[in-house]
Amino acid sequence: MTDFPADFRGALLRPGDGDRYDAARALYQGRAADEGPALIAQCADEDDVATVLRHACAHGIPVAVRGGGHGSDGYAMPGGALVVDLSPMKAVTVDPETRVVRAQPGVLLGELDAAAQEHGLAVPAGTVSSTGVAGLTLGGGIGHLMRRYGATVDSLLAGEMVTVDGRKVRADEAENPELFWALRGGGGNFGVVTAFEYRAHPVGPDVVAGQLIFPFDQAADILGKLPAHMATAPRELGLLAVLAPAPALPMLPPEAHGKPVLVLVPVYTGDLATADEVIEPLTALGRPVADLVARVPWLQANSMLDAVAPYGKRMNLRGGYLPALSADAIEVLLHHAATAPSNPGAATSFNMWCMGGAISEDVAEDATVFSREGAAWLWEAVSMWDAPEHDAQYEQWATTVGEAMRPHSLTSGYTNLTDDLGEPWRSGVHGSEAKYRRLRAVKAAWDPDNVLRFNKNIAPATAG
Ligand SMILES: Cc1cc2nc3c(=O)[nH]c(=O)nc-3n(C[C@H](O)[C@H](O)[C@H](O)COP(=O)(O)OP(=O)(O)OC[C@H]3O[C@@H](n4cnc5c(N)ncnc54)[C@H](O)[C@@H]3O)c2cc1C
To answer: Deepest of 22, 40, 225, 451, by most Cβ within 10 A of its Cβ?
Structure first.
């Protein structure tokens, strides 16, 4: 790759460039650091993106794309690859009149949130500040606001994209509508998105949010009561239930530290005067050992999970949709939470996201690629560890969890909150067969040679 085009204006980093190369290739997924890409092209703007893609296309070089660097598969920095690194492209603007937010693909969720909150607004997105808007949006985007305002893709108005042969196109409801459909859940399969336009919504500035920590022996009972409870809860209540090792909090006895507990994470963005009516019945589902729910700024609520998301650990992720949080599914979750591997510096947690409300009821299944039909809850199992010699143990464990949860899960799912499970999972994860056929046709129209193949890949439809 020595003949790289001279008109590229950003930084080019190769193995041998020392700390700058190592800093550029660091991802949330620590295992990605085991191998390094051949060339990282840090793009200053969309012209740079077009330059790299034209060069790659002309030489038949497959391209990886780095947005915020949180993809659990580590596809953003594959060994030996050419990487379009979008992290320098960080502009974000908010029009308070139209509530249109425009973000470049290097913007992180914390930055998006901070810019929108200056005007009392938020784009519904994810829950950890260092996650990138780009990969999150292209996969779907779920978080504390999804029951009130839907998935991130439901608030996406347009994307600007550089095609693999270097053309700049726009995709929205009127222009390239089929591409616009595919960008709302089909991942980084079609081109490199250089700007996202969203509709933001009023949120905060204060909300009521935090954590309710319950002993593990209450978990089965509380999880069992949650579905009926949430069926009548307002859309303004977001709820995440977590089974995870207890933090070393002073209100927990020392012998409980590190042992699994149930944590309910409510985030209520409705009228603050009604918050007690919404939160107190949730607290009363059990006898919490710690009640850390309080009135806080939205920015604090939407970054409280940063503390449990350390950068650079080795990790894996399995997840899926539950049509119901049934007693059988709960039993499987509790059994695996109680028997997860335990190693120094490692942690395993199960997250159960309550869906319903806007994300489930306001958008038709085929309106976006991001699938949600029939999904009442989303489960994910996250393991993080340090030692490479534990890789096999955690992979085996994740496989066991995935198999145990399969009978309780839909075949569709959320691509961003699980590792790539290959075929046939990929062809079913977006929903119906017809949807996947449609996606393959869009892939064939925009990236027929599969230049963008370091992703949860959609095989281009073949002619005939
Ligand atoms: C700690 C943590 C917390 C998370 N929390 C949430 C959450 O609350 N809600 C949620 O919905 N998801 C969440 N996720 C999942 C997250 O949405 C995905 O990991 C997503 O892929 C991250 O995007 P990124 O840009 O940071 O990652 P990257 O690794 O940079 O990108 C992931 C992939 O997206 C593609 N891509 C990225 N940018 C572009 C672009 N501009 N054009 C074309 N393709 C592109 C590439 O194929 C790339 O490999 C979380 C992940 C982690 C690790």
So the answer is: 40
